[in-house]
């Protein structure tokens, strides 16, 4: 009897293909938790549409035989202007969770952002080998949030990213309809067992939303940002800034970098896509503040678009989880390999040899 040949599928050629493979294996509730957004998901769709409205004006007759996607971010050199975004509960997608994703980031030469709600503790994630940034939610308990900062410092994290657009979790209707709860074995590993247990109990809605309502402080203000600035010497990043006026206030508060983001459409439904405000925010902060775009990045072309509009780099979140679900660490490596290859291709075809030259490209929007 001839044995059945079990061959691996051909490598994915786009992040869309990776998403489709992940969707085929993820439980429906988890798939909705990762893919979904707030309200009618207007901002989720707008993030993608806004990027596709941006067209580049390529330069010609330049020698692009040698190119580099390398860049500097917050004092470190990376292989490309991209960081893995903070995403909660990677173990929903794969048992190796954040550890596998961090190892893939290390192999790709990009930073990995460990989330407050990660499913492995920050110490284990940082030990996986990637340059690690730590994302902080403003917890109600001051001692616990300060403890998280000190743990991140002791673990060797090289930057602190404070999320400022989540006083509570947005109304994510898919999760409410699904009564989404964390399965056994998946916890908020950086928090105490008592603090994280609520995410396993649903009372007719999303247990994760209920947990965050109990844990996060909606009272975060600029005074708290200024206090945090005095409590750590790590570079400080604010994630979730959209208004140029807020960006200018952040610079005055001593912030080193901003993530221009509407939280992937998962907070205020109808919030403007970050890519629409990038040029104005760049003008407001000047060149002394690093800008990262988050929301809807699905290709190396999108990275180039962000650079041309004033960003220093981008964050990528959902595609990393898709890669993890599709093929563990190898799947995340494939996601980052695709982004690197696509960025190199787009860079050269636009007549640019470096990330710095990409930032000088002109853009036009659909209809202009």
Can you put this structure into words, describing what you see?
This protein is α/β, with parallel strands linked by helices and 368 residues long. It has one domain: TIM Barrel (Alpha-Beta Barrel). It is 42% helix and 13% strand. The protein has 15 helices and twelve strands. Strands 4-11-10-9-8-7-6-5 form an eight-stranded parallel beta sheet. β2 and β3 form a beta hairpin. α1 runs antiparallel to α14, α11 packs across α12 and α13 packs across α14. The longest helix has 32 residues, at 318-349. The radius of gyration is 20 Å and the shape is globular. The model has no long low-confidence stretch (mean pLDDT 94).
Spell out the blueprint of helices and strands.
Layout: H1 15-25, H2 28-35, H3 42-52, E1 54-57, E2 71-73, E3 76-78, E4 82-84, H4 97-108, E5 112-114, H5 122-126, E6 132-136, H6 142-155, E7 159-163, H7 173-178, H8 193-196, H9 207-215, H10 222-231, E8 236-241, H11 244-252, E9 257-260, H12 274-285, E10 290-294, H13 300-308, E11 313-316, H14 318-349, H15 355-358, E12 362-365
Helix pairs in contact: 1-14, 4-14, 11-12, 13-14
């Amino acid at each position: 009897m001839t044995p059945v040949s079990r061959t691996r599928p051909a490598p994915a050629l786009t992040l869309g293909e990776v998403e489709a493979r992940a969707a085929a294996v993820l439980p429906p509730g988890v798939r909705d938790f990762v893919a979904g957004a707030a309200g009618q998901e207007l901002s989720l769709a707008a993030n993608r549409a806004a990027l596709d409205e941006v067209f580049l004006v390529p330069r010609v007759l330049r020698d692009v035989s040698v190119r580099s996607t390398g860049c500097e971010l917050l004092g470190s050199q990376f292989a490309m202007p991209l960081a893995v975004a903070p995403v909660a509960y990677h173990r929903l997608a794969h048992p190796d969770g954040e550890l596998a994703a961090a190892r893939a980031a290390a192999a790709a030469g990009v930073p990995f952002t460990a989330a407050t709600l990660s499913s492995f503790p920050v110490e284990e994630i940082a030990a996986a080998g990637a340059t690690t940034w730590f994302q902080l939610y403003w917890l109600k308990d001051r001692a616990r949030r300060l403890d998280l900062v000190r743990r991140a410092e002791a673990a060797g994290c090289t930057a602190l990213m404070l999320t400022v657009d989540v006083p509570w979790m947005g109304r994510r209707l898919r999760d409410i309809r699904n009564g989404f709860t964390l399965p056994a074995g998946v916890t908020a590993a950086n928090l105490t067992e008592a603090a994280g247990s609520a995410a396993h109990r649903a009372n007719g809605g999303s247990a994760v939303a209920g947990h965050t309502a109990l844990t996060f402080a909606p009272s975060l203000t600029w005074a708290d940002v200024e206090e945090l600035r005095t409590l750590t010497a790590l570079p400080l990043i604010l994630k979730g800034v959209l208004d140029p006026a807020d960006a200018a206030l952040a610079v005055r508060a001593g912030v080193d970098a901003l993530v221009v983001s509407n939280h992937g459409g998962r907070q205020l439904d109808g919030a403007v896509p970050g890519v629409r405000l990038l040029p104005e925010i760049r003008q407001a902060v000047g060149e002394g503040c690093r800008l990262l775009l988050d929301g809807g990045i699905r290709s190396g072309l999108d990275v180039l678009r962000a650079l041309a509009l004033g960003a220093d780099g981008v964050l990528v979140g959902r595609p990393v989880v898709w890669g993890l679900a599709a093929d563990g660490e190898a799947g995340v490596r494939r996601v980052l390999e695709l982004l690197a290859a696509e960025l190199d291709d787009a860079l050269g075809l636009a007549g640019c040899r470096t990330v710095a030259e990409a930032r000088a490209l002109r853009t036009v929007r659909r209809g202009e």
